[in-house]
Amino acid sequence: MSAIDLLRELLKASEKAANIARVCRHNERLFSLLVQEKEKDESNSRFEQDFKTLADCLIQEMIKHDIGTRFPELRDNIRGEENAKFTNTAGDSVTVTVTDDQSETVKILEKILNGDNDAVTALVDEVYRDVDLDMESLELPTDSIPLDNDWSELGIWIDPIDATAEYIKGVEKLTKFPNIASCGLKCCTVLIGVYEICRGTPILGVINQPFAEKLLAETDDESANQLPHGGYGSCQYRGKIYWGLSVGDLKFNNIAPHEPEARIAILSPSEQSKYVDFIRNQLKYDVIYSSGAGYKILKIATGEAELFLLSKGTTYKWDTCAPQAILRSMNGDLFSLQETLINKCVKNIAYQDRRTIRNVGGVIAYQNIDKLREFLKL
């Protein structure tokens, strides 16, 4: 069995997910139908209001279906953030599922969208669309990379749209560093991470940034329908895909080395002031604030920021599995902040306990482990 076979399917699924996210967000009428507030037991305590969208649920179930069809032994080990139950405006609860039978998916969406055929067609077209990615441009290894595990010994965590609040609001704002967004659609990511169940170690991660680049203008020109990594004539954004693979001593990714403009720490706007002051005054970092855990850790992987720290236990396994796998492919990692600072034990975030879905002790991410050692000395 080859890790590259799995990587190819994850890349395709992530791009199909990005297409769904772009189509839903661009069509104002469709988008207005899709948003509902999460139940209290589903929501993140960090937010006064935590929303899910039908796009989230549909993306999650689509990825489960596509990967589960290609790798049946993996099917029962694919987990995601969203409860697939959605309630329509009439108060009817419907469980979102995607199956081989396209007509069944149509019936489910018709119930949720109260028979709005245009909206249903737009969504179903994307769910069952064949995605043709230019794998060469994504720099996949040419050699087969065998895995030590059977497919049934691997697990997958999905965050269908990380930073859902930013996806809904869509208010774009950059930090003083133009390559790093403070909020808005650039902070939204599709996260798919693969881990070894027995060790809890992330080995393969895909991050798709559906709204990486805003196009200058809409166009009906035929060339717009051939934009690399997403974008149809009706969409205003071009996406970007990042991946990382770490199997034993073999490490691969498609991220080019990057020299940061400054020594940057990227934090949540809600971070505790004692940590902000320490990072700014003692470690001498330039502190910036941004949204989306996946996006912030991605910026560590790309080298555009050096340190990500979150002191509160408000990230979940679906937030961190994919970006951690990418960090590990670059000899970096994601660690438990509590274990690192309080118990003086550098402990990686791990995934073998299926009952624990929250990173309770906070997280700290570095691409360069020597920088982490400097941090610990202080």
Describe the structure.
- The chain has helices at 3-26, 28-34, 54-70, 102-112, 117-127, 164-169, 273-282, 293-301, 317-328, 337-341, 369-377; strands at 35-37, 51-53, 78-80, 85-87, 93-95, 154-162, 173-174, 181-183, 189-196, 201-214, 237-247, 250-253, 264-267, 286-289, 307-310, 333-336, 363-366.
- With 378 residues, it is an alpha+beta fold.
- A hairpin with a 5-residue loop joins strand 4 (85-87) and strand 5.
- The termini are far apart.
Give a brief description.
This protein has 378 residues and is of the alpha+beta class. It is built from 11 helices and 17 strands. The strands form 5 sheets. Strands 3-6-9-10-11-12 form a 6-stranded mixed β-sheet, sandwiched between helices. Strands 14-13-15-17-16 form a 5-stranded mixed β-sheet, sandwiched between helices.
Descriptive keywords:
globular; Inositol_monophosphatase-like; 378 residues; 17 strands; inositol-1,4-bisphosphate 1-phosphatase activity; metal ion binding; CysQ/Inositol_MonoPase; alpha+beta
**Over the alpha carbons, how many angstroms does the gyration radius reach?**
20 Å
* Poorly predicted tracts of residues: 42-50, 218-234
* Beta-strand fraction estimate: 15-25%
Biggest sheet, open or closed, and with what strands and sense?
6 strands, mixed
Q: What distance separates the N and C termini? A: 45 Å
On the 0 to 100 scale, the average pLDDT is: 87
Helix content: 25-40%
- Identify the overall geometry: globular
**Structural class computed from helices and strand pairing:** alpha+beta
GO molecular function: inositol-1,4-bisphosphate 1-phosphatase activity; metal ion binding
Cofactor: Mg(2+)
Pfam families: Inositol_P
Family: Belongs to the inositol monophosphatase superfamily.
